[in-house]
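Exam revision sheet. Question 4 asks you to relate a sequence to its structure. Input first:
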Amino acid sequence: MGRHRLVLRTLTEAGACEIEHWFDDSEIDRRLGGRFWIHRALRLRDEPAGEFRGRRVLRSHGWLADDADGTPVAYLGGDVYDRWVRYHGEGKPLTGEISARTMSLAYVVDPARWRRGYGRAAIESVLAHPDVADIELWVLGIDSDNVASRRCAESAGFHLIDSVPDFEDTLYYQREALT
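Answer key, structure tokens:
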């Protein structure tokens, strides 16, 4: 793991309130939306959809990554699927199916801590978490122009699946599970 030792705790409503001010940052607001985003992520985790973009949702997770002082430095969460397929928009065929239990992971780092290794440390903490020991394939969807996040993904061992962004201008990175 990186130089930061982080502890994961399950995201709660109180935890969402602790970090909602991160979403006031213009960069995070532009990419994800305002404060409502983290509360929506919490609701989706508690009430996962049965199917999403051609994949069956098995369960959802959400965590805050705390530093040694117990201060949240990142949020991570997402859905666990029965397989991975590339979605090209409504009415278009799915492609690139991989039959593997997959987790699509989203992450947000406290803007005051950007470019200091917290993103990589948070991702590595999730990859090693016992609640996701059954994951065979990890996927990150990153805006094509988000160079910092792309570098973070690569530093955590993810590689670009396809250099052509999808219909939402998202690039996908994947990493096989830890063994």
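Marking note for examiners. The two ends are 15 Å apart (CA to CA).
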